[in-house]
From TrEMBL, chain A:
Protein keywords: ATP-binding, Nucleotide-binding, Sulfate transport, Translocase, Transport
NCBIfam families, per the entry: 3a0106s01
Pfam families named among the record's database cross-references: ABC_tran
GO process annotations (BP): quaternary ammonium group transport
Lineage, uppermost ranks: Bacteria, Pseudomonadati, Pseudomonadota, Alphaproteobacteria, Hyphomicrobiales
Protein name: Sulfate transport system ATP-binding protein
Family from the record: Belongs to the ABC transporter superfamily.
GO molecular function: ABC-type sulfate transporter activity; ATP binding; ATP hydrolysis activity
Segments crossing the lipid bilayer: none
Domain ABC transporter: 3-237
GO cellular component: ATP-binding cassette (ABC) transporter complex
UniProtKB/TrEMBL annotation, chain B:
Origin organism lineage: Bacteria, Pseudomonadati, Pseudomonadota, Alphaproteobacteria, Hyphomicrobiales
ABC transmembrane type-1 domain residues: 73-274
Name assigned to this protein: Sulfate transport system permease protein CysW
Main location class: membrane
Chain's role: Part of the ABC transporter complex CysAWTP (TC 3.A.1.6.1) involved in sulfate/thiosulfate import. Probably responsible for the translocation of the substrate across the membrane.
Keywords: Cell inner membrane, Cell membrane, Membrane, Sulfate transport, Transmembrane, Transmembrane helix, Transport
Membrane topology: Multi-pass membrane protein
Transmembrane keyword on record: yes
Stored InterPro entries: CysW_permease (IPR011866), MetI-like (IPR000515), MetI-like_sf (IPR035906), Sulph_transpt2 (IPR005667)
Record-level GO cellular component terms: plasma membrane
GO molecular function, one term: ABC-type sulfate transporter activity
Cellular location(s): Cell inner membrane
Subunit structure: The complex is composed of two ATP-binding proteins (CysA), two transmembrane proteins (CysT and CysW) and a solute-binding protein (CysP).
Amino acid sequence: MEVTISNIRKEFDRFPALNDVSLKIASGELIALLGPSGSGKTTLLRLIAGLDFPTDGKIFFGEEDASHRSVQERNVGFVFQHYALFRHMTVAENISFGLKVRPSSARPPKAEIRRRVLELLDMVQLGGLEKRYPHQLSGGQRQRVALARAMAIEPHILLLDEPFGALDAKVRKELRRWLREFHDRTGHTTVFVTHDQEEALELADRVVVMSQGRIEQVGSADDVYDRPGSPFVFSFIGESSQLPIEVKGGTVLFQGQPIGISEAEEGAGELFFRPEDVVLVDAPDALFGKVTACRRLAGTRIAEIDIANDGHAPYHVEVEVPLHAPVELRSELRFRPTRWKIFRK
Amino acid sequence: MPDQLRSSSATSPAFRDPASEGLLAKVLLILLGLAFLGFFLVLPLVSVFVEAFRNGFGDYYEALIEPDAAAAIRLTLLVAAIAVPLNLVFGLAASWAIAKFEFKGKSFLITLIDLPFSISPVISGLVYVLLFGANSALGPFLKSYGVEILFAVPGIVLATVFVTFPFVARELIPLMQDQGTGDEEAALSLGASGWQTFWYVTLPNIKWGLLYGVLLCNARAMGEFGAVSVVSGRIRGLTNTMPLHVEILYNEYNMVAAFAVASLLAFLALVTLALKTFLELRFGAGATGGRH
């Protein structure tokens, strides 16, 4: 189901948690809400579910205005961060809960409920565990029970709050891949919240980057990584360094000196570049500084460089250097960004 | 290899558990603890039963079926049967509100719930005398409609409800706060109504804590002396509860009868403790999450 969020504002005790947020989610899409803690991503998810209500703005499910519908009426599958499995119920009872609480006119017969529970258990690869209690399951298994329970009510839309937050790294990776397959198989419109950019970039069709109650950028993994729309997105996603610059006569000046790159728009701004988008040069017009540390990062080597800033604390930047290139501590390194972005003040 | 390590450290006298004491200190501390326990708890309890059965089982039985004693037992059971369910509902509602919702004046409400614990039961009783007595505004008004509060069963029930108010709520609030609202939100998102959520999710989560709170509440309701003695008027056979009856018998030097009725109350206390221990053994310390 298509979901449209229109100019949503949410205040908690006059403190704005979300500020004028609008977003269109296409049917069958897998969307990640990505941001640091306090960015409002979980609040947005809870507003979509109907677990909280907006101070202002509207939420549409398809063409219908769902803003005033209760959580029960919205028919959403919500998977909670800590799963919130009912501890006194078996796995099967947990999964069938949403069907059993329906009014008798809408409740499927017992045999049908049982059939569906077993089907869902197979789907989340937990066949044979229906008589276990939640405390007898591992974290990853609980997560999948919670998902099966949410799917049992045949929701219009699936919402997951930090779905892998409480799992260890290995299980996390497996479940991530598994959720992608699960989504592709069932085709549900899915929104999940995460603070882990790797998770968001790998899993989602589109990533919604949020900060301080606003949406900073919406786009594919390539969009938000290669074409960040704001200084926040550039520094939040991936590694980056930033330097204050000025553009004069089409040339970028740092501390009044040209650094060998050019830009059309004149004026002061902030230069952003990623460690991997840098080339070492032997020319006068380049950035230069002293190497303060050098560390191996998987298949690459990263040099940390301090650029002197007469009298003030030096600028700290990171650049990737070739594995074979000899880089000595405290030696001077000259480099130029090959891809960069300048944000105006 | 690990086995060897463990056995060598267990047999070696050079190593001692760093949190443990020397043998002499151990024995002394344990003896001290036992002596204290025996003198202050076991001895009085045993003496209650010894005194009660001093003249044999016949006299003990006589003392209990004697009309005034029987009336006191009936009244105590009646008062507990009214006060405990009331406080079960109040306590549940109060802790539900405090643990699951945010609202202004919450800490004030928590303080208010603790009020009966912090003031003397005699004062609690006096409050009702002032409220419903002959010189109050309410007393004569109600009396003109034939409603007797003071020196009658309603007054005793009111005083008992007041004194036993915090037990269930105090037991449940930390438990429910600890559990949070996640389970309830999950149930609601799955389509359950508010009532279904309470019945199928909230209540099963707190049932052992609730049972324990009710046990404590009941023990206090039956044993309450101070507040009840102020409002009851101690009319034999009419407004005498068991604790009041014990005192009257004792003041009349009717030791066997006094201790016979007292032994019932002591027995109730033992049953409560046994049930509590059972609940904790059976369901772990989480069953009784409170601070009593």
